[in-house]
Amino acid sequence: MAAQALAAAAFHEGNYALAFPFFGAERRGAPVLAFTRVDSKKIRQRTQVYKPDIVVVLDDKLMGYVDVTAGLKDGGLLIVNSPLPPEKIKTERPVKTATVDATGVALEILGAPVTNSAVLGAIAKATGLVKIASVERGIMDVFGARLGEKGGRKNADAAKKSFEKTIMGTSTGGRKFKATKKWLPDYKEMPLALATRVMDIDGGKAGPGSFIMNKTGSWRTFAPLLDEAKCTNCLICWFYCPDGAIKRGEKKVKIDYDYCKGCGICVEVCGPKALAWVRTEEVDEKLLAGEVS
To answer: For 179, which DSSP code?
Structure first.
C-alpha cells in the first residue's frame, strides 16, 4: 500500500509511476518487498528493481540479517524506520541515510505499529521526489479507498508528522553479513515446538517450528517481557506458543528471542500477568545489559 500511495503521489504531480509487491511466504509478519518506479516518461520495464536509487526499510530489525544496501547505486539513499539517528545505523558501506521513528508516529496517531503510511512522509522529506501534499493525496487515494475517509485522513496525518521528524545523515559502514545457505536445511536442523515430534511424510521427514538457521525473531516489532517475580511456572504460555520459543524451567519459563515472532499469544493467555507487551527495542536493551537471559 505504501508503494501504491507513493506511485499515486507521483502521478498527481504529472509523472508516470508503477508499483507492485513481491511476496515470499504469505503470512503476517514475514518479510516482503515492494517496488515503485517513477519517471517523467512512460515506464515499460516491469521487472523487480535490482539496482535501486532509494531503499526504504520499514522494520529496522531486518538490518541485522539482510544487507539492505545490496544493489543500491553509488550516491543512493537509504531510509530507515528507526528511532536512532542516521550515524547510528550500521550498514555494510557508508550511505546517505534518513531515519524516522515511524513506529512511534504510527502508535501515536494510528494506535497500532502499522508504519507503511508514516514512512511515506520520510520519503517525501528525504528525497524531494514528491511533495508532502501529494503524499497525503496519494494516501487518501489508496488508504482512504480501503479504510474510508477517517482512516485515510489518520494515515495522511501520520505521513505529515513523519515528514517533520525525519533526520538526514550518513550511516556507519563496516557491518559484515554472512553468506546465506542456498539450500534448505533438513529436518534435523529444526527445533521441536511443544511436545511434538518429527513426522514421516510422503516427501521425507518434517518437524514443527522454524528452521534453526532462520532466526524468526527478526520479524517482530513487539515482544513479551517476563516479570520473573510474577511467573508461577504454570506453563500455559509454553503450551500455547506456536513456535516453541518459550522453554520450560524449574522455577520459571524462559523466552528464546531468536525465534519469538512477537505474535502476542503468550501475553494474552498468561493468567498471573507475568508477561508484558513491549517494544522490541526495550527487550534488546535488556538483553545487551544482561537483565534478560
So the answer is: P
